[in-house]
Amino acid sequence: MTGQSKRRHNQGLCSAGVLYLYKTNKSMADFLTGDHLNHEIVKIISDPIDGIVLASPYMKFHDRIKRELTKLSDNPKIEIKVIIGKSDGNFKSSIDKDSLEFVMNLPNVQLYHENRLHAKFYGNGFDFILSSMNLYDFSQNTNIEFGVKLAAGTILDNRFEKEAFKFIQEVISQAELIYENVPVFEKKLLGLSKEYLGFKNFLNKVDRKKRGIQEVIEDIKLKEGTKMGFCIRTGEPISFNLKMPLSEKAYKTWSYFKDENFQEKYCHVTGEPSDGKTSFAKPVLHKNWNKAKQLSK
Fold first, then answer.
1. pTM to 2 decimals?
2. Residue percentage of the chain with pLDDT more than 90
């Protein structure tokens, strides 16, 4: 244990009798302030497992946040979910114009708006931070802010972590998806490898500007000789399979809880919004079951 760690350990109990939990050699809870908080949020973004979630009522990205998100663009398999809120219905007042344009050019991004959102959550599938701080450069540079960082294997035995992730998933499921880019791949070497072709703008409620690949994704799927469906969580094109209506990435997230009745966003057959009426157990909207039967033949 270093000198600094010893001091932290010895100072674990403050004069008011409140126990603070500091990180030792094992993963524990970290109480973060100032530059340390900023640094840890950057680490959340820079080292994801297969995706990140950034939830903050107001956003204006600091340059260091943009740098890390730009690095993620080099790996389009990393899914980025951005949730903004607290704007009285005008989501553009929740995110700075330059930051919005930046987000809209990431290859694998979903931008949500939840007007009731006041919480701040930053997670990457392993570590997450609950904080008072908006992802806003003024907050990061000026305000007195704090946060708590936890990871898998904490002394809380994952209960707190699971509850936090489940809660943020519920927030996302209730939020309005206003923008989405989907990466496009083409299989090579008999499916043993995939070549990234670029991204396709799948949903755009922000403006009319077209971004990314404009070719129809179905053409790529038809070359593979597969029947095409849609991921019930992300809406991206996938192979039609009623027993597996999720993309690989979405399945990894779903398998964390394996709730077959968790309300999803899209119909597996048509890709149209389902307003929570689809799930892993029932991936097709009732009106589309005849189409599902035809595809199943």
1. 0.67
2. 41
